[in-house]
Design a protein that fits this description.
Distance between the termini: 26 Å
Helix content: over 70%
Number of helices: 13
Number of strands: 0
Radius of gyration: 18 Å
Shape: globular
Order of helices and strands: HHHHHHHHHHHHH
Largest sheet: none
Strand content: under 5%
């Protein structure tokens, strides 16, 4: 792994992890462009989640601390419980099927990435045009059943091209949240999942050996992912203060999906 590749992968991870355009889909595309595909390449991608996790924890540090204080002081369990409920479906499915998903060509196919990109992009455009049937003031008003719906939507992010933030923001909008609240809840609910991904990447002896051999490039890529991730979170939270801005990410996804499909068909 060279300096150029480490920087490109860090930028891709940091920007697309939080903007609802699919980090996994973009990383698959970048991987093909960089000629990756080895197991070590995939391990590198898993380990640069550390940078984006740190960006998430630092950006929302006051919000996360407030939730923890409420729980420890037994003031309000509601939001913490909803975040746990949202995290469970993707956590269980990801844990049980991670090996199967990694071994299936379907999940690394550019056709899969393009179709998932396009389908979710169309959903974003449609959802942005729909009137909200029931409007929730913020994520604190979310019911357990609606939190579960968002969690079930998050499981589709295991398919490259879907996007964890994209699927949860769309689901949040459908259950009555505005785009800004749906985005914030999406990021808060992704903390347990991202912690699990990072922990899984660090506990194996092969991962520790890989880190020791590639420490410099991993530090560089994670630093780039951290900085770009902080910028991306600030950007998306600002943009989604207007509920009808979600469609622009949908248009981007549809255009990228068409470009990928054309290039794959012509290859």
């Amino acid at each position: 792994m060279g300096i150029f590749e480490a920087i490109i992968l860090g930028l891709t991870q940091g920007i697309t992890e939080f903007i609802p355009v699919s980090s996994s889909g973009h990383l698959e595309i970048v991987e093909k462009l960089l000629g990756g595909g080895a197991d070590s390449f995939h391990l590198f991608l898993e380990l640069i989640n550390i940078g984006t996790l740190l960006a998430l924890l630092i950006f929302f540090r006051k919000r996360i601390w407030g939730i923890l204080v409420d729980v420890f002081q037994k003031k309000n369990y509601r939001l913490a419980l909803n975040i746990l409920i949202t995290s469970i479906p993707a956590g269980i499915i990801g844990f049980l099927l991670s090996g199967f998903i990694e071994d299936q060509p379907f999940f690394s196919s550019m056709y899969t990435v393009a179709i998932a990109m396009g389908v979710v992009g169309v959903l974003m455009i449609i959802v942005d045009k729909l009137p909200q049937m029931s409007r929730l003031k913020n994520e604190n008003e979310l019911t357990k059943s609606r939190a579960l719906i968002i969690g079930l939507a998050q499981t589709f992010a295991l398919i490259p091209g879907v996007s964890r933030s994209g699927s949860t923001i769309v689901a949040g909008r459908l259950v009555g949240m505005n785009s800004e609240s749906a985005a914030e809840y999406s990021f808060l609910a992704s903390v347990p999942i991202m912690c699990g991904v990072v922990l899984k990447s660090l506990i194996s002896s092969s991962s520790r050996a890989y880190i020791a051999d590639n420490l410099g490039m991993l530090l560089l890529s994670n630093a780039v992912a951290f900085v770009s991730g902080m910028v991306a979170i600030g950007f998306i939270m600002k943009v989604l203060k207007k509920s009808d801005n979600l469609k622009y990410f949908g248009y981007y996804r549809v255009c990228l999906a068409l470009i990928v499909l054309i290039l794959v068909l012509l290859a």
